[in-house]
Specification:
96 residues; two-stranded antiparallel sheet
């Protein structure tokens, strides 16, 4: 399993980077199962790590979801479609 780990609740965390299935809206957990609760989801801490994980595990039809736990609502998120092209680590662009 990857070095990325599930974050423990921490009031200092400003945002969580998660993978979310488009069809079910469930979030990926650290044990690679899916949950409806973003509080149980694996925090990738950086969108690049979430995108790389999705590509390495052939996950399609997922979003990179950004959760802002302290923003007044637990439902504030910004879904970003994960790229389908191979992701070039350290680059701002996907390679075709």
């Amino acid at each position: 399993m990857s070095e990325t780990r599930l974050a423990k609740p921490n009031p200092g965390i400003l945002m969580k980077i998660l993978l979310q299935q488009m069809a079910t809206l469930k979030y990926l957990r650290a044990d690679e199962t899916w949950t409806r609760h973003h509080s149980e989801a694996r925090n990738f801490f950086h969108s690049e790590k979430a995108i790389e994980f999705a590509h390495e595990h052939d996950l399609t039809d997922v979003y990179v979801a950004v959760k802002f736990p302290g923003a007044g609502s637990d439902d504030v998120d910004v879904p970003l479609p994960a790229m389908r092209a191979p992701f070039a680590s350290g680059s701002n662009q996907a390679r075709a």
